[in-house]
Amino acid sequence: MSAAVRVELTWPRHNVVVVGEQRYFGLERDGAVHLIASRCPHRGGPLHLGEVEGNGLRCPWHGNSFRVDRLCTRGVSTVQRGPHVIAYLPDGGADPVATNTMVLAQ
Fold it and tell me: Where would one find the signal peptide in this protein (predicted)?
């Protein structure tokens, strides 16, 4: 079992979490916040800068579309109470940093 680090963020003030080299972005669907790995599995593009079109999130680098519901299902599980979101992310060798940055995928 790999190590995990706990992260707490205040949604929507914090919409991105960075752990080492990995970036996760918050995507709200049906009242729940999902943390999605921002790295596209094909070419490593920044999915948080992609566009949501219908039920798909389009990678800004190569244009492939990923179903939002599948991304949410495969994302990091979160516990949410009001604006407070808690998640356990894979250990990236550094302390997690919750921040606010431009996220086009909404």
Answer: none
pTM of the model: 0.89
List the chain domain ranges. 4-99
Q: What is the pLDDT of residues 39-51, one digit of tens each?
A: 998 888 999 999 9
d(CA 27, CA 31): 10
> What CATH homologous superfamily does 4-99 map to?
Rieske [2Fe-2S] iron-sulphur domain (2.102.10.10)
CA quadruple 22, 50, 66, 2: dihedral, nearest 10: 10
